[in-house]
Input
Amino acid sequence: MESSSVCDENSEETGCSTLGVDSIDYSRTISDVSSFSERSEEHSGPFEMRSRGWPIAKLVDRPSPVLSRLSMKQRADVLKRRPTEDELELIREKFSKLLLGEDMSGSGKGVCTAAAISNAITNLYATVFGTCHKLGPLSREKKSMWRREMDCLLSVCDYIVEFYPSSQKLPDGSTVEVMATRPRSDIYVNLPALEKLDAMLIDILDSFRKPEFWYVDEGKQSFNSASQSFRKLSHRNEEKWWLPVPCVPDSGLQEKGRKELQKRRDCANQIHKAAVAINSTVLTEMEVPESYLAPLPKSGRLSVGDSIYRYMSTLDRFLPDYLLDCLDISSEHQALEMADRVEAAMHVWRRKASMAHSKSSWNVVKELVVDGDKNVVLASRAESLLLCLKQRFPGLSQTTLDTSKIQYNKDVGQAILESYSRVLESLAFNIVSWIDDVLFADKSARNG
Output
């Protein structure tokens, strides 16, 4: 699913975004991404990662939160000033809608809290970045809205904790064992990373304050035949003819500017890869909903088809790359359809293996069962085939299972991590795409 994003510099929106019952669809898009490495943490200047995570001291003996009159802990790294009464009212309204599950009648028919927060993050992203189609800094109003409202939504994570055994010393000198709390491990690891990626993406947009290139907006200007010809040379995506066209000087960009642009592209590319990795990890950890498992066929063979099943079940050595070469999958639509079929068959075989050995966890079954169990072998091979397919199509849209997990997930922490990583993935991909458009225009000008 392809996402659109970005900013209208002259926008004067100052209010909070509205919440809808249905999330806007932001799926992955096909892009040329490089592997994420430690280099992303070493950028300085406009791309420096700003740490906004918890202090290390919070991990152990986490003190009881001090509630403000907004009923949430103050995050002083974002709101350094006292909010105005209008802002307080808007924040109260947002949290009221979240508590009501977006059912304003108050009859209890709203969505669960996890879905409401996921929808709120997705809709906020659409409000702030949905009209942005070119490189440039966000307007002050939109940047303030993004930081203020994301801070409110992410503040929920400050109260998602896990228990761990600890000891406490009493006044008389004796020691007793107690259960202390600390931030849940997945949130403690992933949320600060996402906040760093968020800050880096905003910094990349801010770095385009005085670029060498400019845009021609077809929606506001009629083109003659000459400009239509220029579009063919300078725009890579003819299907999206309504998007603004990047323009460069007749001689192209300066060498220094071209290198800086490529550096920013590489940085955004790294961020995109990191967001994809976090999103995939969160989706993998989500519980498979019963509504997905119930309609699955009883046989995995019915899902993948006879030819694929014979190859997976008869050979001693399974080569997923060779199988994909034989299938000759040429489009993202075909790849997504195949991923859905293989994923369904994988869960059918996992369920059979778990039922046969009276184990509810596939991980336990996989470790305990001998290699001769056919269902275990087929499930493992299906997992390898699915992984290989996703590697060949790194921007593959979310599968039916992924969509089902997001829809029926009730874990608030996972909902926040999934939606936050998904919108950052979308923004990073768009920035890479916009930079590629400018580089394409530069190449066309120099070769013309």
In short: Residues 412-447 form the longest helix (36 residues). The chain is about 50% helix and 5% strand. The chain has two domains: 38-213+248-267+412-447, 287-408. The longest strand covers residues 161-169.
